[in-house]
Amino acid sequence: MAKVTVSLDAELVVEVMVLAGVGSPQDAVELVVRDYIQRGHRTEERVASEDAPRAPEPGPQDHHG
């Protein structure tokens, strides 16, 4: 897989490292990016399922005793 080098503000990276609970800046940023991508896929799946046709909900039934 190809690698990309990105310059980020050190304070930003340190905060991500603390929140992610990892000691490596590379690992912390990679975790954030992977999480962002997974959230996007989950959102796409949710939207697709909401667009699918739904069966009508049954109406209230009369219960005469």
Q: How does this structure look, described?
A:
By secondary structure, this protein is mainly α. About 60% of the residues lie in helices and about 0% in strands. It is built from two helices and no strands. Helix 1 packs across helix 2. The longest helix is centred in the middle third of the chain and has 27 residues, at about 25-50. The termini are far apart. The relative contact order is 0.08. The mean pLDDT is about 85.
Overall mean pLDDT stands at 84
The SSE string, one letter per element, is HH
As a percent range, the share of helical residues equals 55-70%
Structural class: mainly alpha
* Spatial separation of the terminal alpha carbons: 71 Å
Low-confidence stretches: none
> How much strand content do the residues show?
under 5%
Main beta sheet strand tally, sense and closure: none
What's the Cα radius of gyration?
23 Å
Which labels suit this protein?
single chain; mainly alpha; 65 residues
In short:
The protein has about 60 residues and is mainly alpha-helical.
Write the layout of secondary structure elements.
Layout lengths: L9 H11 L4 H27 L14
Helix pairs in contact: 1-2
